[in-house]
Structures are given as structure tokens and as C-alpha cells.
Amino acid sequence: MNLLYPLLITFFAVLASSQQYNSPIIGIVSIPSDYPQYPEASWSYLVGSYVKYLQQAGAQVVPVPWDLPQDEMTFLLDRLNGVLFTGGSADFDDPVTGELTPFGISLNNIVQYVIKQNKNGKYYPLWGTCMGFQAIAGFIAQNLTYLTKDCEGCHGVNKNNFWNTNYQSRLYSQLDKDLYRKMETANLSVFVHRYMYHAEIFENTYPLNETLKVTTFGYDTAGKKYVSSFESPSMPIYGTQYHPEKNAFEWRSAYPINHGYDAIRLQQYLANFFVNETRKNTNVFTEQETYLIDNYHPVTLKNDTYTSLYFLPKSKGLGDQDAFISSFRTAF
Known about the structure:
15 strands
């Protein structure tokens, strides 16, 4: 019996690890709330379509409050199989002083954590969409001034992506040939941004031109060429300026969203790609049930553009997770 016990422990540990690889656990980082009924002093939030986007590809989701103390943020990051930064409109830095905001500091810490993990041999995927895309590039460059607010005709439109033929993309390498062509011709992607990275900055500025490679680009209505997706050639770090999560899961928007067959194929491809990347991460989250998004209630707000949102109460931390979840459940 004494010999059997450690064998059983090993067996169940391997089984749990295998199950997590098949259904990886991805953290979605919340952003400061800008909703009057959920003031920033008390709440952060994440948009429900990102949750559905990852779940459709077989992932489980853990909400990551952006304002967690560093030790508790590390507790989660050490157990997750990957991280996603969402879109939004929160500030990374103070427009007057140029100093990083607390939110910017938190995102920067996560970016540096992911880079360190990958350089130390741990395959650790990171994805950024729109604002998250901008954050990853800015914090890799350690320079937020490359991000300019001059994209004309880029907010709330379906647009094309054009290929950077000078770089062989890992992200798009398995895309069906017909979809590859249609990305340039069929307006499959939803763009909702005013800030942008000019393509020449990525191509000519260190460390961006070494750490990140432009995979696709777009043009604004004034003809300016901007980066619409990137990836790291050496790490599983990816970003899209466009919003693949919207095509299948957002229906209340004031602007048009392509819900057509090919747009859905593209968003499903991207979700499958990223989730499959996170399956390569070997972290195991044995306490996962306590932290999963399933513990929280999605909220639909009248006249809001999002189909659903998750609001997370601030200043509770992970030290008393039962109280954290209880306070959320009794807030409505």
C-alpha cells in the first residue's frame, strides 16, 4: 500500500496535467471601468465576447483583475497557460507627465513576465487585441510615443488586411488559401481604433523590428500605412489591431460587423491557433475551479454596445477568494 500511494499520486497528477493541456486555462486581463454605474474606484471589467471567443476553441478562462497585488498576479500567471489583453480605452500613461498609470504598470509587468518565461525556456503565449495589441508593442519597445492618434476612418469599420510578403508568418501559416486571398478583398475584419502604429516604425525601429514582425498591414482613409497584426519570430506573442472576437459574438454594436461565413471562419481560425499555442504551455492550475469565469455572472446593460460584460470588484485580491466571489455575487 505504501508503494501504491505515490504511484497513484503521480498518475492523477499526470492525468490532471494532460487534461489541462487539452483544455488550457487562459487569463483575460480586466481593464479599469468607465461605466458610471460601476465606477472605476470600485470596479474593473472585461467584455464577454472575449470569453466566448476562447471557449469556442476549447479553452477555459480565468479573469485576471488588472489591479491585483504583484505577488497575487504572479500566483495566477504561474498557473495559467496563456494570457489575453483585450481592447478598450484605458490609458497606459499620464498624458501630462508621461508616467505610466497603475494600469500601464500592470500590463507592462505582465509583458515582461511573459518575455522572461519564454527566454527561460517556458513556452508562454500572449495575445493582444486592439488596445492590447498596442500595449504589447509599446511595452516591448519601452516607448509609448510610437503609438499615434492619427488613424483616419479606422473606427467601427470592416476593412481588409494586406500581407507582409517579406515575412513568413507563423500565425497565418495554416490559413486556407481562399481565406488568405479574401483577407485582402472581402472586408472580413472589424477595426475599432483611432491610435495606430505606422508600419515604418516597426520596420525601422529597434527593438520593434527585432522582437516583433509585421504580419499584415492596413491603410487609413488618408493613405497612411499602419500595422494590423504582428507576431514575435522567437516567442509565442501575437497581436491584432482588428477584433476577431466581435464577428461571432457581438450583435448590439452601433457600427457594422461582418457576421458572414468567411469572417466567422477567420475568427475561428485565429481562436483555434491561439488556444492551440497555449496547449504547449506546461503550467498546471490545480485550484482552477475557484478562479474560473464560470464563478461570475455576465451582465447585459441597456443601450450598451456590448452583448455582455463581466464586472470585477476591486480591492479584494486573491487572499480571500471566497469573499471576493461572494461580494461579486451579492453586488447585483
